[in-house]
Design brief:
By secondary structure, the chain is an alpha/beta fold. The chain has four helices and seven strands, in the order αβββαβαβββα.
């Protein structure tokens, strides 16, 4: 009887340890520079995610604005861009160079986990609040100042 209880306890502990290991090592997305991220690491921060594509003229027009924003982000804020269509790392590198994309690019694949669904059209920008939920969706072109103003307004409401 003791052996059976001991085996059950070991099995339960192994399952719990495995689940905890999985939760703590799971990657939600990776950027072109090889950095890996989990959403829980962004708790308490604001995150801006911009969907774009090279075939989307408004997306390419807003990219200099996003580059500017990425160089001077508001406090406690992260910015990422993600290509609408799945591309290989080599294709993303070429695209980033061709269109002078300085914003950290998320490599989209079947394992990528984001707190929003893929938008129905482009450009699309999502603001994820400190709780990890999408708090604002901007469909259409954005400017660095426009995103800063939205973030400022939401951060003042949040305080």
């Amino acid at each position: 009887m003791r052996n059976k209880i001991g085996i059950v306890l070991v099995a339960v502990c192994a399952c719990i340890a495995g689940w905890m290991f999985y939760q703590n090592t799971r990657v939600d997305f990776q950027t072109l520079d090889g950095e890996t991220y989990m959403w829980k690491a962004f708790e308490g921060q604001w995150t801006v995610i911009n969907y774009f594509a090279p075939w989307c003229a408004p997306c390419l027009r807003e990219m200099p604005e996003l580059n500017s924003l990425s160089q001077n982000l508001p406090a406690n804020t992260r910015l990422f861009a993600i290509n609408y269509d799945h591309k290989t790392v080599a294709e993303l590198r070429a695209m980033a160079q061709q269109f002078t994309i300085e914003v950290p690019l998320i490599v989209a694949d079947e394992k990528t986990r984001l707190p929003m669904k893929k938008p129905p059209y482009l450009p699309a920008t999502f603001i994820v609040g400190p709780s990890g939920e999408v708090v604002d969706t901007i469909m259409g072109e954005v400017t660095a100042d426009g995103i800063r103003q939205r973030l400022s307004a939401m951060q003042n409401i949040d305080e």
